[in-house]
């Protein structure tokens, strides 16, 4: 089982960019589908983006399409979330998550990284 550690969060102005990284331990990273979720204060955790094991397919929430890009480097055991044109409503704790094809839902989670977008 992999362990996940996010980094790259911070404070940015509206319209700015950030790149989040999620480093995974273990030698089986390429067997996991990876995703990013976020949770804003007082709200439920929501899906942001996902990438398949090989990186061949990506999925996005409508709210971030065209602004965020998810990618992975299996050689570095890392998944990324490039966030451009950030808005105050993107403010949240961002979580990296992993699941194998045999799992119904994402079941391995990182500790989260805070992203704050000021207006």
General description of the model:
This protein is mainly β and 119 residues long. The chain is 0% helix and 50% strand. It is built from no helices and 11 strands. It has strands spanning 4-7, 10-13, 18-24, 33-39, 46-51, 58-60, 68-73, 78-83, 92-99, 108-109, 113-118. Strands 2, 4, 5, 6, 9, 10 and 11 form a 7-stranded mixed β-sheet that branches. The protein is globular, with a radius of gyration of 13 Å.
What attributes characterize this protein structure?
119 residues; mainly beta; seven-stranded mixed β-sheet; four-stranded antiparallel β-sheet; 11 strands; 0% helix; 50% strand; globular
| Count of individual helical segments | 0
What is the distance, rounded to the nearest whole angstrom, between the alpha carbons of the first and last residues?
A: 40 Å
Give the topology string: H per helix, E per strand. EEEEEEEEEEE
Helix percent reads under 10%
Structural class: mainly beta
Mean pLDDT: 96
User: How many strand elements?
Assistant: 11
**Rg from alpha-carbon coordinates:** 13 Å
Low-confidence stretches: none
Largest sheet features = 7 strands, mixed
Strand fraction equals over 45%
Overall geometry comes to: globular
């Amino acid at each position: 089982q992999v362990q996940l550690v996010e980094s790259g969060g911070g404070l940015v102005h509206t319209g700015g960019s950030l790149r989040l990284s999620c480093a995974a331990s273990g030698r089986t990273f390429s067997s996991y589908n990876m995703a990013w979720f976020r949770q804003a204060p007082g709200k439920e955790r929501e899906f942001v983006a996902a990438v398949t094991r090989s990186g061949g397919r990506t999925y996005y929430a409508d709210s971030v399409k065209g602004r965020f890009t998810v990618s992975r480097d299996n050689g570095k055991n890392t998944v990324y979330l490039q966030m451009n044109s950030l808005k105050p409503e993107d403010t949240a704790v961002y979580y990296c998550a992993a699941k194998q094809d045999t799992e119904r839902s994402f079941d391995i989670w990182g500790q989260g990284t805070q992203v704050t977008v000021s207006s």
